[in-house]
Design a protein that fits this description.
By secondary structure, the chain is of the alpha+beta class. Helix content is about 60%, strand content about 20%. The chain has helices spanning about 55-60, 70-75, 80-85, 90-169, and strands at about 5-10, 15-25, 35-40, 50, 65. It has a 5-stranded mixed sheet with strand order 4-3-2-1-5. The relative contact order is 0.07.
């Protein structure tokens, strides 16, 4: 059974007040509930949100999921921060709320910055690899030149020996 912490509308026509209830997610909005844990009066100035903190924390610990509006109200009272402090892993509702507070443009900007940083790292790695390849090519060229000089010296010595041998004969 999926349990929700949600608002149940009560009050006169066009004058809503709400009860904060624990209810099965399949039951209708104003229908059957398990327990009443608070009330919300949005028409008062400032709006009134009263909730039994112990009961709400107890239901949150048991896995009850708040609706979006109740989640906002719990954040406003500080009860959600208290619940999150107990929990080592953030819930889906918390991750969703953080994403909403960031906004899509901010999230895209963060993603773009990460892509730029990755591209810069790849370019730096490529340039380092190119520099290493260039250094290796220069070292190979220098080694080839040294070998060529050595072979040329040996050949010159052999030619000089052959020439002196021919002259002495």
């Amino acid at each position: 059974m999926a349990v929700k912490i949600r608002l149940m509308r009560v009050g006169k026509k066009k004058q809503p007040t709400y009860r904060v209830v624990i209810a099965d997610s399949r039951s209708p909005r104003d229908g059957r509930y398990i327990e009443i844990i608070g009330q919300y009066e949005p028409r008062k100035d400032p709006s009134v949100f009263a909730i039994d903190n112990d009961k709400a924390l107890g239901w949150l610990r048991k896995g009850a999921q708040p609706t979006e509006q109740v989640h906002k109200l719990l954040i406003g009272t500080g009860l959600w921060a208290e619940f999150e402090a107990e929990s080592p892993n953030p819930t889906l509702a918390t991750r969703t709320a953080k994403a909403r507070t960031l906004g899509t443009s901010k999230a895209r900007a963060i993603k773009d910055e990460a892509a730029k940083a990755e591209a810069a790292a790849n370019a730096a790695a490529e340039s380092a690899a190119n520099a290493a390849a260039k250094a290796a090519a220069e070292a190979a060229k220098a080694a080839a030149e040294a070998v060529a000089e050595e072979v040329a010296e040996e050949a010159t010595e052999e030619v000089a020996e052959d020439a002196t041998a021919e002259v002495s004969e």
